[in-house]
Design a protein that fits this description.
mainly alpha; Rossmann fold; Tyrosyl-Transfer RNA Synthetase; 13 helices; binds adenosine-5'-tetraphosphate
């Protein structure tokens, strides 16, 4: 709260600033229902109450094997998927990470204060290096440092993500504490925001693992999949992976129930839950109903995708605006950072 600056005025002026939010999506394949339910649906809701900056994080996509032409294409597709899912450039700032050069500038600086041991214990480093043993690179190890830079470049206070990203945001908080301790209070410690029920959607083919672009198209439902593709994938989904312990559902069955509840009506979910308890459930029926509700739930997104693909001008305008807004915010932060850490400034 502040007082009005006019001499005879006794009005108090309340300046309310929206809390800032950042989150990103790797353009490594089609956006799937794991990305959508775990993160993007939250992003869409937050647009009305927060100042949101959302990014397609193409530098992150370069840490695992990729083809240059494909990266360009995937970035474009991911932008279309985000807009189709409800990301509205009138309400948020939408960018491609590599178009705002301060992301990598700040990442370098943060890299100089991040102990190696912090990075070596990040679970995704181990997972991705096991997945691509011939593609071990420094970028993969320092991925969480770039992610920290992405978030704090905008002094974001909240990061809406799926459960798998929690350790990365925790590391960002550690880096922030270290930076603030070494150079003075500069950045807020960002909070993770997850939707508990949908924070981890399982793979259709390996339900012990999370749904992931890199596990291949049969393991996930892309938000642009046709009803036929959705049906085929769900009918093939793994339901029982060995005997379940006591009353606990197997991960595959639990995953179908989660999709049913996320896209269908509560009564449909309850009816199958009753059958499951009564041990009269037929998984083929559960799969058919789940396939129907997922296909119906994604229909508006499929239609919007088509609309955006026919009007790429709208996407270009949104990105130009997003880049301008983000670059201005980033420049402000970097000017402060450069001063704090003692980089050469001839005017001092
Ligand atoms: N299975 C999931 N359940 C819930 N949330 C998920 N997210 C990803 N998978 C699930 C969330 O989606 C956001 C964007 O993720 P990303 O593409 O940047 O990276 P990721 O987590 O590595 O996603 P993928 O699909 O597994 O990609 P690849 O195969 O390229 O590594 C994040 O908020 C994430 O939590």
């Amino acid at each position: 709260m502040t007082l009005c600056s006019s001499p005879n005025c006794r009005w108090k002026v309340i300046i309310v600033t929206k809390r800032r939010v950042f989150s990103g999506m790797r353009p490594t394949g089609r956006m799937h229902v794991g990305n959508y339910l775990g993160a993007v649906r939250n992003w869409v809701q937050m647009q009305d109450t927060y100042q949101c900056i959302y990014a397609v994080v193409d530098y992150h996509a370069m840490t695992t094997p990729y083809e240059p032409d494909q990266l360009n294409q995937e970035t474009d597709e991911m932008l279309v998927d985000l807009l189709a899912s409800g990301i509205d450039p009138e309400k948020c700032t939408l960018i491609v990470q590599s178009q705002v050069p301060q992301h990598s500038e700040l990442a370098w600086i943060l890299g100089t204060i991040t102990p190696l041991g912090w990075l070596e214990r990040v679970p995704t480093f181990k997972e991705k290096s096991d997945m691509h043993p011939d593609y071990l690179n420094l970028g993969l190890l320092s991925y969480p440092v770039l992610q920290a830079a992405d978030i704090i470049l905008y002094k974001a206070e909240a990061v809406p993500v799926g459960e798998d990203q929690r350790p990365h945001v925790e590391l960002t908080r550690e880096i922030v504490r270290r930076f603030n301790h070494m150079f003075g209070d500069t950045f807020p410690e960002p909070q993770v925001i997850t939707k508990k029920e949908t924070a981890r959607i399982a793979s259709l083919t390996e339900p012990g693992k999370k749904m992931s672009k890199s596990l291949g198209p049969s393991s996930y439902i892309a938000i642009g999949d046709s009803p036929e593709q959705i049906r085929e994938k769900i009918m093939k989904a793994v339901t029982d992976t060995g005997p379940s312990s006591g009353d606990e559902m197997s991960p595959g069955v639990a995953s179908l129930f989660l999709l049913l509840r996320s896209f269908g009506a509560e009564e449909q979910y309850q009816a199958f839950a009753d059958e499951y308890r009564a041990q009269t459930i037929r998984y083929v029926d559960l799969k058919e109903t789940t396939a129907d509700v997922v296909a119906q739930g994604l229909q508006p997104i499929r239609e919007k995708k088509q609309e955006i693909q026919n009007n790429k001008r709208m996407l270009e305008d949104a990105l130009a605006q997003g880049r301008e807004t983000a670059t201005a915010l980033a420049a402000e932060t970097m000017s402060e950072v450069r001063n704090r850490i003692g980089l050469y400034n001839p005017r001092m």
